[in-house]
Specification:
2 domains, globular, seven-stranded parallel β-sheet, Rossmann fold, alpha/beta, single chain, 47% helix
Length: 357
């Protein structure tokens, strides 16, 4: 079978790394990179570090407003789909690349499969939530990472094509830990000791584009009294400078700002951190995989099981709640989250097996 996979952003590169390895043993894959993330630190470094095959098509769309970016992706993807004539289009997650791939396939009558289907934050102010919902409505095959995501789809009336396969991010994370340990030590480079620092990421538009939220998060980070590593997403870097908040972080001696990191370096920092603070869905999951307490800088999460099993707490952008969560011990977390029985490194194989039928 000829399958065309669409990726464009960091989380999708990671998921594709797992699925492509298995997919290419049995099918012909055409890999399309939309260029949503185009900096070396946000794109090429992941292809190199995770041994992802080079894209067959690079669309070079770049950044822009949601409407302009999605429209440009749709236009360019349509041309590729017409030229390649795949039997299936495979999309990942919840980005503009995901939605563009789903719309292009649907308009051309090509079957569509969605990895990470059924996730819901129930906050339609998030662009990612709209992308998820619309992609799920268009998809023929819905690959769900958790029982809750499958239940969401059934509750919304999905009658066919729903498959609970587990989380492909775990397929990658399980392998990455050993690989990260064999690499030059990023902890040494940053002067850090295990369990004696915090790791943070901030990139969601709801935080970066909302000055009040961004100010609250920066206030919390500056108020902490232990080393905090903050790899800066290009959008976050830009928004911090525009809001006049960047200097506050540089003046806080305990805050260590870095450029975006490769996946293996980031995994090494995750597994050795005392706690993780993030607004990323993927990082919440990875924290749970690695059994590192996580503080989510949002008021809701699509990964509800990470909260239910005790490895994750929601603190929003309120500096007092964030600082309190950093200082407090978590209630004894459960050793297993709902759906953890599918954290067996076989999610990609289950997806590929289903694609072949």
């Amino acid at each position: 079978m000829k399958i065309l996979s669409v990726v464009g952003a960091r989380p999708q590169f990671i998921k594709a790394a797992a699925v492509s390895r298995v997919l290419r043993r049995e099918h012909r894959e055409i890999l399309v990179h939309t260029g949503q993330h185009y900096d070396h630190e946000m794109s090429s470094v992941f292809f190199e570090g995770l041994d992802i095959p080079a894209p067959d098509h690079e669309l070079g769309v770049g950044s822009g407003s949601h409407g302009r970016q999605t429209a440009e992706m749709l236009t360019r993807l349509e041309r590729v789909l017409i030229d390649e004539s795949p039997e299936m289009v495979l999309v990942y997650g919840d980005t503009n690349s995901t939605l563009a791939g789903a719309l292009a396939a649907s308009k051309l009558g090509i079957r569509l499969a969605h990895v990470e289907a059924g996730l819901r934050s129930f906050n339609r102010a998030m662009p990612e939530e709209i992308n998820r919902i619309l992609t799920d409505r268009a998809a023929d095959l819905l690959f769900c990472p958790t029982p809750a995501s499958a239940e969401n789809l059934h509750r919304e009336g999905a009658a066919a094509g729903v498959h609970l396969v587990g989380d492909v991010m775990f397929d990658v994370a399980a392998d990455a830990v050993a690989r990260a340990e064999a690499m030059p030590r990023i902890l040494d480079r940053l002067g850090l000791r295990k369990q004696s620092y915090l790791l943070a990421t901030v990139h969601r538009a709801g935080n970066t584009d909302d000055v009040a939220n961004l100010r609250g998060i920066v206030k919390a980070f500056c108020a902490l009294d232990e080393p905090l590593v903050l790899p800066l997403h290009p959008r976050t870097d830009k928004c911090l400078k525009q809001a006049g908040l960047y200097d506050a972080l540089t003046k806080a001696e305990h805050v260590i700002l870095t450029e975006p990191l490769g996946y293996l370096d980031f995994v090494a920092l995750q597994t050795n951190a005392r706690k993780i603070l993030t607004d990323s869905g993927g990082v919440q999951k990875e924290a749970c995989f690695h059994r590192v307490p996580c503080i989510t800088l949002r008021e809701e999460t699509e990964w509800v099981e990470t909260v239910e099993c005790g490895w994750n707490v929601l603190a929003g952008a309120d500096p007092q709640r964030i600082v309190r969560a950093v200082g407090e011990a978590f209630v004894e977390p459960s050793s297993r989250c709902a759906g953890a029985e599918l954290w067996d490194g076989q999610a990609s194989r289950r997806i590929v097996a289903t694609l072949g039928h």
